[in-house]
Design goal:
mainly alpha, Arc Repressor Mutant, subunit A, about 75% helix, elongated
Length: about 160
C-alpha cells in the first residue's frame, strides 16, 4: 500500500481504499471468528428442531396454535424458543402465524363459494371481526374488498364497473 501511495499511479486512491477495506475485513473476520463460529454452531444445533416446528406450523396453521405448545414440542424454554424462532424466521411466532394465515386467506377468498366467515374459521381465526381487522392491517383492504378485486381480475371474468 505504501508503494502504491508513493507511485501515485492513476486511480491510486481507489486501489488504496480497496486494499484498506480488504485489510479491515480480514481483521474483523479474525477478531470475530469465535462469534461467527458460535452462531453457526447454534444454528446447526437447532436446525432439526426448528425445521420440525415450522413444518408443524404449516400443517396446523388452521388450528388453535399456542406458543406454549410449540415450546413443548421443541423441548425449549419460552425465551429460548422465541429467540431461536425469530433468528430462524425473522419474525415472532405470532407474526409468522398471522402472515401464514393471511397468505392462505388470500387464496381462499378467490373462491366465490366460500364466504368470508368460512375463510375466517378455515384458516384458524376464531372471530370474524378480529380476522377482518388483521387482514386489513396486513393487506390494506378488507377481505370483502379483496375478494371483489380478485374476482374481477380473474381471467375470463367479465369486469363490472
Amino acid at each position: 500500500m505504501l508503494a502504491e501511495y508513493e507511485r501515485r499511479s492513476p486511480f491510486f486512491q481507489i486501489v488504496l481504499k480497496s486494499n484498506l477495506l480488504l485489510l479491515l475485513s480480514m481483521l474483523i473476520r479474525e477478531i470475530n471468528k469465535d462469534l461467527v463460529q458460535e452462531g453457526y454452531e447454534k444454528t446447526e444445533k437447532y436446525r432439526s428442531i426448528m425445521t420440525g416446528v415450522i413444518d408443524y406450523i404449516h400443517a396446523a396453521y388452521h388450528e388453535d396454535l399456542h406458543l406454549d405448545t410449540l415450546c413443548s414440542l421443541a423441548k425449549l424454554s419460552r425465551s429460548t424458543f422465541c429467540s431461536i424462532f425469530k433468528a430462524w424466521t425473522g419474525k415472532t411466532f405470532n407474526r409468522y402465524l398471522a402472515d401464514l394465515r393471511i397468505f392462505h386467506a388470500l387464496t381462499m377468498l378467490k373462491q366465490p363459494e366460500l364466504s368470508v366467515t368460512d375463510v375466517c374459521y378455515a384458516i384458524g381465526f376464531n372471530e370474524l371481526s378480529y380476522f377482518c381487522r388483521i387482514f386489513k392491517k396486513y393487506t390494506g383492504i378488507s377481505p370483502t374488498s379483496y375478494r371483489k378485486q380478485a374476482i374481477q381480475q380473474e381471467p375470463g371474468t367479465p369486469r363490472i364497473r
